[in-house]
Design brief:
This protein is of the alpha/beta class and 151 residues long. The protein has 6 helices and 7 strands; from the N terminus they run βαβαβααβαβαββ. The protein has a 7-stranded mixed sheet. The longest helix has 16 residues.
Length: 151
C-alpha cells in the first residue's frame, strides 16, 4: 500500500505527522509526496517526513520538451531526491520525447497516458502480468499500485 501526501497539505504538527507515517511504514506502507513542485512546503516535507517517492506534478512535465527551465527543475528535483535517497516519479508523461528526456535526467519512474490508460484489474493482469504478455514497458510495483520503470 502507498500513502500519498499531497504537497499542498498543511500539517500543524510535523512531528506528529512524521511519527504516524513512520508507524505506517513499519506496517509495510510506502509514502509518496504527490504534486511535488506545485506548493511551498515540498522540500520541508521531503526532508522531514519518511517519504519514499517524490511525484513530480504533470504541470512540470507538460512543457519538458520545449522549456529548458522545466528540464533543469526536473534535474534539480532528481538530484535532490537522490541525495535524500528517494525515488522520483514523473506524472503525466504523454510522449516518447518526454519519456526519453526523463531517462536522461535520471528520473526513476513515470506514469501517464503515453505508457497506458486506466484499465480494469483483469485487463491490467492480462496485458502486463500474464506469462505471454509483451507490454512496451515493464511495470514495477510501487506499493500496491503500478508505475513504469524508465531506466
Amino acid at each position: 500500500m502507498t500513502i500519498e501526501i499531497h504537497e499542498s497539505s498543511q500539517f500543524h504538527d510535523l512531528d506528529l505527522t512524521g511519527n504516524q507515517l513512520h508507524e505506517a511504514c513499519q506496517l509495510g506502507a510506502t509514502v509518496a509526496l504527490d504534486d511535488f513542485g506545485t506548493g511551498i512546503s515540498s522540500v520541508t516535507y521531503a526532508a522531514e517526513l519518511p517519504i519514499d517517492t517524490l511525484k513530480i506534478d504533470r504541470t512540470m512535465i507538460k512543457s519538458l520538451v520545449h522549456r529548458p527551465d522545466q528540464r533543469e527543475f526536473v534535474r534539480g528535483v532528481t538530484l535532490m531526491a537522490q541525495a535524500m535517497q528517494r525515488q522520483v516519479l514523473a506524472e503525466g508523461v504523454e510522449s516518447e520525447a518526454q519519456l526519453n528526456l526523463l531517462r536522461e535526467l535520471g528520473c526513476d519512474l513515470a506514469q501517464g497516458f503515453y505508457l497506458g490508460r486506466p484499465m480494469p484489474e483483469e485487463e491490467l493482469e492480462r496485458y502486463y502480468l500474464a506469462p505471454k504478455a509483451t507490454p512496451r514497458y515493464p511495470l514495477v510495483p510501487l506499493g500496491n499500485s503500478h508505475a513504469t520503470a524508465i531506466r
